[in-house]
Amino acid sequence: MKPFRFHMQKVLDLKEKETEQAQWAFGRSVQQKQQEEQKLYRLVDKRNTMSDSLVDMQHSACSASDLLAVTRFQQVVDRQIETQKRRIIGCDKEIERCKEKLHYHLQESKLWSTLRDKAQTKYIEWQNQVEQKEMDEIGTNRFLRQLKQV
Description:
single chain, mainly alpha, Helix Hairpins
């Protein structure tokens, strides 16, 4: 007998490939968010260092222009922190979009795999029936030969 061949195998392969690509995209989006969070932590650390330095400058003798420069720089870092927070929110949205896409492709892939499994089960049952008919025919022929010999 010939081996089982799923007539929609190319579609199944395509669905599995799409699922794999969706998994990669999801992984990349999670990795991107982690990188953006690390940038935020560095900015917050920078801001805290600036705040400490500003407090130290206020307690020591320094010019007003130096205090103003540090304050302006601290404001720039604050704006960068807000921008970074918006980027992280964007990353969260991208992760959610990728998660939904991955879920959809997983369902599609599972559906096609189930169809393949059902077709394979049906093929095996058909193959077993054909084999059983052949065995029955062989048994019947033997029985008839034995009757003729007697």
